[in-house]
Amino acid sequence: MNAFKAWIQRYQLASLVILVVLLAVVLPLVLDIFRLNLVGKYLTYAFVAIGLVMVWGYGGVLSLGQGVFFGLGGYAMAMFLKLEASDPISTKIQSTPGIPDFMDWNQITALPALWVPFKSLPFALAAVVVVPTLLAFIVSYAMFKRRVGGVYFAIITQAVALILTVLIIGQQGYTGGVNGMTDLKTLWGWDTRTDSAKYILYYLCVALLMGAIVLCRWIQVSKLGTLLLAMRDKEDRVRFSGYDVASFKIFTFCLAAALSGIGGALFSLQVGFMSPSFVGIVPSIEMVIYAAVGGRMSLVGAVYGTLLVNAGKTYFSESFPDMWLFMMAALFIGVTMAFPMGLAGLWESHSNHGGKVAVRRYARPRSSHRSHRRRVMSIRQQHLAPSRGCQTVPAPRASEFNGDTS
């Protein structure tokens, strides 16, 4: 029994079980299909949040461009769905049947070569993971191998998000421009707009999210997770120990990009469209807020943070359309000030031995050199300080050191 309890505590399965019960049982019972579909949309953002927990919380690398990878995964899936919706029968009123409507509006008369492979669903599913990961590898390899990090890397990721947004909007004939790709209705002939399809897609999203959390948790408790924490706190020490720090950062950044791409693909399936508004700087910063509110060191907390922020955005925008932005700012500032370690820190501080766990996981370890120096100074003061009731022994003369006793 103790071994089973220790196994649960090691992998933090208690909080994961509670999350599964909430998402798979409680919410489907208490919410109607419209609200449940909104929750499913929120959960697609949670893939980005748990990726940020790995790359920012454990790896110490802040990325402000995760919307890029979310958008790439979403566009990869949307391209397949758009081609299926643009069959010759459905587009017979166009001047060029068989191509997406925005291409026909922009005087394109043939399907571009880039779009042809996306007629295959397996290719589109592979592209959902491969394309974001490949771009993440190119960016991270170029930066981390040159030891570019910190605020400079965050600014570069913002620049990548801005460049991709401008590129998507500018190539309207190939990407749909600012309107994005809309009218995504079927997947291999299966109508994704029905209530039963929405339930299936919701549970699919929950299952994949739980799998992503288990995978990331397995990485955290492995030797790689320990090295990521050591690299975050004392990067130079890890490097001097013989490890290639850049490779660890590249792997973590690519992992976060792949998770974001999966979230983007599920978003396209559940919502039925994809646009550049999910790729830019603003949505990327919002995704960082999800992880910060939930706790940047907690995978489960990142999911709760995503749900809280997006539920607050929906409620405030519906109830207070003129003030909802200010209320969202107050929510974020209030949560971060009241709970500096996020919602996960609040949970751990009230659970058994939670305070010790929170301190151990979140606090930066003291430097051993400083501790040793303080101990040495304390010992010196104890030996040099005169005892009570005793006379201070005068210092020896310089001649005594030369052997002169006169």
Layout of secondary structure:
Elements: H1 2-11, H2 13-30, H3 33-58, H4 66-85, H5 101-105, H6 121-144, H7 150-170, H8 172-175, E1 186-187, E2 190-191, H9 195-221, H10 223-233, H11 235-240, H12 245-271, H13 281-294, H14 299-319, H15 324-338, H16 342-350, H17 354-362, H18 368-384, H19 398-401
Q: Which descriptors apply to this entry?
A:
1% strand, 406 residues, mainly alpha, two-stranded antiparallel sheet
Summarize the structure in short.
The protein has 19 helices and two strands. It is an all-alpha fold and 406 residues long.
Describe this structure in words.
This protein has 406 residues and is mostly helical. It has a domain at 34-275. The chain is 71% helix and 1% strand. It is built from 19 helices and 2 strands. It has helices at 2-11, 13-30, 33-58, 66-85, 101-105, 121-144, 150-170, 172-175, 195-221, 223-233, 235-240, 245-271, 281-294, 299-319, 324-338, 342-350, 354-362, 368-384, 398-401, and strands at 186-187, 190-191. A two-stranded antiparallel sheet has the order 1-2. A hairpin with a 2-residue loop joins strand 1 and strand 2. Helix 3 crosses helix 13, helix 4 packs parallel to helix 12 (245-271) and helix 14 (299-319) packs antiparallel against helix 15 (324-338). It is globular. The N and C termini lie far apart (80 Å). The model is unreliable at 352-369, 386-393 and 398-406 (pLDDT under 50).
